[in-house]
Amino acid sequence: MDGLTDARIAAVIRTLADQRAGRSFCPSEAARALTDDWRPVMPDVRRVAAGLADIKATQKGQEVDPLTARGPIRLARR
């Protein structure tokens, strides 16, 4: 996972959010954009997303904390 900084992860999350324009996306899309071996990166994607004031995480339409939510979540711009 060389070169996977929080800044790079945040940039990918924000780029995907901008591309979706009002729609949400799965955090795995960000992880897949960062590396072929994406599964180990998922906790980092959730952690970084939790620290971005302009990004929200939802589960079944309700806003959740991406660090504590269990199961699938979606990310989007606030």
UniProtKB/TrEMBL annotation:
Superkingdom of origin organism: Bacteria
Disordered, as annotated region: 59-78
Protein name: S-adenosylmethionine tRNA ribosyltransferase
